[in-house]
Amino acid sequence: MNHGSRPTGELTLRTLAMPADANAAGDIFGGWVMSQMDLASGIRAAERARGRVVTAAVKEMAFQLPVKIGDTLNVYTEITRVGRSSITLQVEAWANRARHRILEKVTAGTFIMVALDESGHPVPVPPEEEQPAAN
Fold first, then answer.
1. What is the DSSP string of 74-132?
2. Could you report how far apart the first and last alpha carbons of the chain are, in Å?
3. pTM score, two decimals?
4. What broad class of enzyme is this (predicted)?
5. What is the pLDDT of residues 30-87, one digit of tens each?
6. CB-based contacts of 86, cutoff 8 Å, min separation 6
7. Domains along the chain?
8. Residue of 71, 73, 12, 84 lying closest to 41 (CA atoms)
C-alpha cells in the first residue's frame, strides 16, 4: 500500500461526511467509507467498460485513520488491470479535514469490477479508445 502523502489515481468522487453516517463518538462508519469507494470504482469502471459493471471482489482493505463528521471524503481510483470481462482498480480514500486544511489517507483497497450485458452476463471489456491527436 502506498503510504505517500499524495493521492494516487484520478479524483473520481467527493462527498461530505454527515452526522447520519457516524457513530455516537462522531466517527464515520467504515461501511459508509467502503460504499463511497465502491461507488467510485463503479463510476470509473463503467466509463472504461462503456456499460454496466458490478463489484466482484474487494481485497486488502485496512482503515488507517477515522473519518469525522464534516470531513470531505475524496476517493481516487486507478485502473491497474483490465482482463477479459474484469477491471481491477486501486482505490484510495482521503479525508480533507476542513478545520485543519489537511488531506489524510484513510484507507485503500483493491476493487474488482465485472462488465455485464443487459441480461446480467459477463461481457468483454472493449479495447481502450484511441486518444485524438492534439492539433
1. EEEEEEEEE-SSEEEEEEEEEEEETTTTEEEEEEEEEEEEEEB-TTS-B-PPPPPPPPP
2. 39
3. 0.90
4. hydrolase
5. 999 999 999 999 999 999 999 999 999 999 898 999 999 999 999 999 999 999 999 9
6. 56, 112, 113, 114, 115, 125
7. 10-115 (3.10.129.10)
8. 12
Structural contact between residues 89 and 80, judged by C-beta atoms closer than 8 angstroms: yes
Q: Are strands 72-82 and 53-63 parallel, antiparallel or unpaired?
A: unpaired
Phi, psi of 22 (to 5 degrees): -115, 160
Name the residue type at position 115.
A
CA-wise closest residue to 112 among 133, 135, 132, 82: 82
Q: Determine contact, residues 35/21, Cβ cutoff 8 Å.
A: no
Taking residue 116's Cβ as centre, other Cβ atoms within 10 Å add up to 16
